[in-house]
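Fold this sequence, please.
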Amino acid sequence: MSQSSQFERVIDGLFAVLLALKKQPVIRFDESSPLCRNIAERLSVRIDQERNLFNFQGSSQAPLLLLLDRKEDPVTPLLNQWTYEAMTHELLTLKNNRVVLTESTGVGTGDVREVVLDQRIDDFYRRNMFLNFGELGDNVKHLVDSFQVQHRSTDRLDTIDDMMKFVENYPEFKKTSHNVSKHVTLLSELSKVVDRNRLLDVSELEQDIACRESAVEHKAQVLNFLKSYKVTKEDKLKLVLLYSLRYERAGDMHLGALIQGLYEAVG
């Protein structure tokens, strides 16, 4: 796909989203980015040309459409993310709201192989998708505890009324059971990947490189991680990239040793 085609696709996509949301925005963009400026100008012209499509009744105050250039922040995409949604995307692969758990993920022999993660139909996921891994673990525990209380209440069916209520509530009970099993399974798989790939250690070094200046110390730490068989090739590459970005203006970054170490690590 040519650059002009990609550019037009971006315009078409933004235009379609605005129509779907029935919003005519105020457009602001990163002044230092020619690309953002071009997108803003082209989208503004497109809206003017199709102004009759934006006559939305009862429209509220115009929202802000902010266009930013990813080149202004090359560091953030290299950092490991620790929210439920981001970790599922990165570590297990979330596609079309589905996570396929194969043998490669280490899932057991149970019946959970493919799970659906959709905030529109899963209240627990909607409430937790942007929470960090620690908070997620606590909330999954609360979810399990709540279900156990509900499950114990079904153990005593002494009267016909008790039985009738259980039958009436069984579909919801079964749905809750499946949902609890799903999130416990996903949390377990994420925990396995975190431990297997030393992600806590990797993330700690990433944050330290991004926030603190200590070229010699960081170089030694990165070289140490390059030798670790547990750290993935992708994370090793990210660490070298982070180091090179952090110390790109330093006189001697010792990148030669890091590049050689990376080459030996990934082949």
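The longest strand covers residues 26-29. The mean pLDDT is 86.
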